[in-house]
């Protein structure tokens, strides 16, 4: 059974940084498109960032471009989300997600993600 486990969330002041990690239980993270989503209280889950399995291209929501960076370590089966210049509006539960292997759909399409982690809370104070 595939499992994704996030870590690295916490409480930080505006302008600070956090790095989220997502460890995957499958053996080759490089063949899955990996994404990060977030959900704030009372809001829908929204796309944050994704890394495509084929070529490693990355995509970001406009709200985080230039501040967040998604990366992966194939040897550790881990995907990261480096978050800099955090703002109070970044406060949310952050979820790691994975598609099926060799996924060819849009990386920003939420229903394309087959596996989800339980989430990690990020709170940014003003």
Q: Would you mind describing this structure in some detail?
A:
The chain is built from no helices and eleven strands. It is mainly beta. The termini are far apart.
The gist of it:
The chain has strands spanning 4-7, 10-13, 18-24, 32-39, 46-51, 58-60, 68-73, 78-83, 92-101, 115-116, 120-125.
Oligomerization state of this entry?
Answer: single chain
Report the helical percentage.
under 10%
Q: How much β-strand is present in the residues?
A: over 45%
Find the count of extended strands (DSSP E, 2+ residues): 11
The coarse silhouette is globular
Radius of gyration: 13 Å
pLDDT < 50 stretches: none
Helix/strand-derived category reads mainly beta
**Mean of residue pLDDT?**
95
H and E order: EEEEEEEEEEE
* Major sheet details: 7 strands, mixed
Report the total helices. 0
Distance between the terminal alpha carbons, to the nearest Å?
A: 40 Å
């Amino acid at each position: 059974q595939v499992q994704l486990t996030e870590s690295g969330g916490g409480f930080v002041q505006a302008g600070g940084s956090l790095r989220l990690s997502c460890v995957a239980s499958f053996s080759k993270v490089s063949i899955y498109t990996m994404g990060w989503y977030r959900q704030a209280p009372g809001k829908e889950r929204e796309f944050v960032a994704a890394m495509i399995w084929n070529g490693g291209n990355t995509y970001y929501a406009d709200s985080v471009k230039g501040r967040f960076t998604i990366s992966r370590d194939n040897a550790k089966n881990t995907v990261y989300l480096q978050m800099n210049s955090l703002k109070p509006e970044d406060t949310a539960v952050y979820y790691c997600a994975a598609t099926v292997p060799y996924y060819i759909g849009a990386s920003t399409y939420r229903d394309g993600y087959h596996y989800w982690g339980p989430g990690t809370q990020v709170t940014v104070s003003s």
